[in-house]
Amino acid sequence: MRLLIFTEGTILMHKQGLGYTREEIIKQVKKNLESVSDFKTYIPIGGAVNKLRKWVDQGLEILYLTSRTQIFEIDQITEVLKKNNFPTGIIVFRQNKETYKNVVERIIPDLLVEDDCESIGGKDKLSITHVKSEIKQKIKSIIIKEFNGIDHLPNNINSLLEY
Question: How far is CA 161 from the centre of its chain?
């Protein structure tokens, strides 16, 4: 079973967000604080590493979807995942003018976890919003609040699929 999980805003955030409320972090992003673009210093949101490890231990394969498209930025996000001991997974990103919809349709994961994109425009920015209906039916989509983390999601994969 394959999980496609968004990185920025879902399991990672800029370091200046630490200690602030979700609402304050969204304001920081909208103001484009310096650390918002300093991808190499991003940090995990809550217990994301432990949650993902629990899922991997149950056989879930993880694909990380980054919003970054420049190779050096993708490398920075990859390094952040490694440095913070996230489970090994494949990093995927938009290529050759792809949209997030194209990436999801190319991969067709069993499970997609992404945030609600509040800081950048909401529902219309979600990956799943524009996926073809025949493909969407094959994907369990879970949308969480941006910068709220995944700690509240079930530890058990079967429960996660029913969430």
Answer: 17
> Measured in whole angstroms, how far is the alpha carbon of residue 97 from the centre of its chain?
20
Q: pTM of the entire structure?
A: 0.95
143: β partners: 114
| Mean pLDDT per 10-residue section of the chain, whose length is 163 residues | 97 96 94 93 98 97 97 97 98 95 97 94 90 97 97 97 93
Listed in sequence order, the residues at least 6 apart from 62 whose beta carbon sits closer than 8 Å to its beta carbon are 2, 3, 5, 52, 55, 56, 87, 88, 89, 90
All structural domains of the chain, each given as residue ranges with its CATH number in brackets, are 2-162 (3.40.50)
- Beta strands in 116-161, from DSSP E residues, in sequence order: 140-144
Cα(10)–Cα(46) distance, integer angstroms: 10
pLDDT on residue 124: 87
d(CA 162, CA 124): 24
Cα gap 92→81, rounded to integer Å: 13
CA within 13 Å, CB half, 98? 20
